[in-house]
Specification:
Shape: elongated
Number of strands: 9
Structural class: alpha/beta
Largest sheet: 5 strands, parallel
Strand content: 5-15%
CATH topology of the largest domain: ABC transporter transmembrane region fold
Domain ABC transmembrane type-1: 19-296
Strand order of the largest sheet: 6-7-8-4-9
Distance between the termini: 48 Å
Keywords: ATP-binding, Membrane, Nucleotide-binding, Transmembrane, Transmembrane helix
CATH class of the largest domain: Mainly Alpha
CATH architecture of the largest domain: Up-down Bundle
Number of helices: 17
GO molecular function: ABC-type transporter activity; ATP binding; ATP hydrolysis activity; ATPase-coupled lipid transmembrane transporter activity
Domain ABC transporter: 320-527
Radius of gyration: 34 Å
Order of helices and strands: HHHHHHHHHHEEEEHEEHHHHEHEHE
Number of domains: 2
Membrane topology: Multi-pass membrane protein
């Protein structure tokens, strides 16, 4: 996304707000000439000893300054509303892009953009562009005012004011490269520190503190070094712009003095001219600095988290009429990644209400089978035949997933069960009892916060919550991916018995299962023999 396309989207959503912002900005820009005009007017009036005109000039000054105060207030109000709209748009866009094609590899970048980059864009892009509009308005107003005092002087001041404008053209690519370099190093550091925090137990058990601290320290030093040089490049560009500004001010004063000596303007006119020239050159310097800011923010808006990925649609499934309560048939399927076969010639049928166990050693392709069924990975060969009745609405809506890493939101138990859907409390209580969470099955616990900042749930209780979610959403199929893994014996037995008691079709992947438990399934598919 470019800066131009970003602002086009904001403008379409906030046309009236931008119109009001530009209007109030134009009124506020009169600040550049009101004070020079009044000071020059009073100087000439005092020089000419027209003391009776002073009260009238002061009243005019008071009225004009109150008008400016109101204009600035409305301008800043619109500014805040535009920032609000921008942040909402960017964060929503990043999150929606992630949900469109989620993956573990995109998590860190997406969170970094939402938590850090959006604020950088606010400071370096939104604030900069709004200030840029104000500076352009002030430059135009000040130029018109100076032209009214002395046309030749105005042209000289304009030329001097434009000298710094050459700086951003010379340093633009240099600044952009610095920002890109820092952004990449920050993402690397953020990923490493996230790994260190989440992998704390692994580090502790391996007694790898010293090595890891050095690892993180080196990443931090690199990130801070890139950050320093990013700001150094920006400040260097601003320094040369300030040097140009210094020369322009001296030239402006010299030209004004020349016209006083020649008798073409009065001393009050010189004061007005000099003050107004500052209001002409200062905005031009600000425009240079803002241009540098916009150059540095461009890589942030080009982040991949804002780019909607191409939809991946795989033709794994064929919807046909199946008889005898058959629901799913794997027909001579070869499964794998990137045309590398992991499982070959897979053939089996699943009937309505079946309890199917899929076993095999680690890495054999058990989870790959699930992903192929859910159309997340392409089949290399073969077809998965699906009963047409399962495609009335959305095929994937038939499936609930129970995994070994159940995610619990730091919200109420009610939210964790419904995920925001409007489901009556009586139904929630009924389902909680069904999944053997009787002690939570009352209205008081439904609105109790659970998760990191609330009621702590055991691994078995988390699995039961996930099963309850699937039951509440009336899923006909439950795909259980190592759902018994990591549980103590008692919890494991409870979850296993619960899954066996459900009327839904259960397709369960387990690495280890006793012979006694295997006998309770309608089918046992051992992928090690395939």
């Amino acid at each position: 996304m470019t800066i131009t396309s970003f602002f086009k989207k904001l403008l379409i959503k906030n046309k009236f707000l931008f119109f009001t912002l530009i209007t109030t900005s134009a009124f506020a820009s009169l600040d550049g000439i009101i004070s020079p005009y009044i000071i020059g007017k009073i100087t000439n009036t005092l020089s000419q000893k027209n003391f009776n005109d002073i009260p009238r000039i002061l009243i005019l000054y008071l009225v004009l300054m109150l008008f400016l105060n109101i204009s600035f207030y409305l301008w800043q109000f619109c500014w805040g509303k535009i920032i609000k709209s921008s942040n909402q748009f960017l964060r929503s866009r990043a999150f929606n892009t992630f949900t469109y094609s989620p993956s573990e590899s995109k998590m860190a970048n997406t969170l970094n953009f939402i938590n850090v980059n959006v604020k950088q864009i606010e400071n370096q892009c939104i604030d900069s562009v709004i200030t840029l509009i104000y500076c352009i308005d002030q430059t135009i107003v000040s130029l018109i005012y100076i032209l009214n005092i002395n046309g030749i002087a105005a042209l000289v001041f304009l030329f001097c004011g434009l000298l710094p404008a050459a700086v951003p053209r010379l340093t633009r690519n240099w600044i952009q490269d610095g920002t890109k370099s820092w952004n990449q190093s920050y993402e690397i550091y953020n990923l490493k520190i996230s790994d260190a925090v989440h992998g704390f137990n692994t580090i502790r058990h391996a007694n790898a503190y010293t090595r890891l601290k050095l690892f993180i320290k080196n990443a931090l030093l690199m990130e801070e070094r890139k950050y320093f040089f990013m700001n150094f490049r920006r400040n260097t560009s601003n320094f040369f712009a300030q040097v140009s500004y210094t020369f322009s001010m001296v030239i402006s004063l010299a030209v004004g003095s020349f016209f006083v000596v020649k008798g073409q303007i009065l001393v009050g006119g010189l004061i007005s001219l000099f003050l107004a020239s500052d209001r002409l050159t200062s905005p031009i310097i600000s425009i240079v600095n803002i241009t540098n800011q916009l150059n540095s923010v461009r890589p942030l808006l080009e982040n991949t988290v804002l780019q909607k990925p191409e939809p991946r649609q795989y033709d794994n499934l064929s919807f046909v009429n199946l008889s005898d309560k058959k629901k799913i048939i794997f027909d001579h399927c070869t499964l794998g990644y990137n045309n590398h076969a992991i499982l070959k010639n897979i053939n089996f049928e699943i009937f309505e209400g079946d309890k199917v166990l899929i076993t095999g050693r680690s890495g054999i392709g058990k989870s790959t089978l699930f992903k192929s069924l859910l159309n997340e990975l392409p089949l290399i060969k073969g077809k998965i035949l699906i009963d047409k009745q399962l495609n009335k609405n959305n095929f994937l809506s038939n499936f609930g997933i129970v995994g070994q890493d159940t995610y619990i939101f730091s919200e109420s138990l009610r939210f964790n069960l419904t995920l925001g859907k409007d489901i009556p409390s009586s139904r929630l209580i009924k389902v909680l009892k069904k999944v053997k969470l009787e002690y939570l099955a009352n209205k008081n616990y439904l609105d109790t916060q659970i998760g990191d900042k609330g009621l702590s749930l055991s691994g078995g209780e988390k699995r039961k919550v996930e099963i309850a979610r699937a039951l509440l959403n009336k899923k006909d199929f439950l795909l259980v991916d190592e759902g018994l893994s990591g549980l103590d014996d008692n919890s494991r037995k409870q979850i296993f018995a619960l899954l066996q008691s459900l009327p839904q079709t259960i397709i369960e992947i387990e690495h280890i299962m006793s012979i006694e438990d295997k006998q309770k399934f309608d089918q046992v598919i051992n992928l090690d023999t395939k």
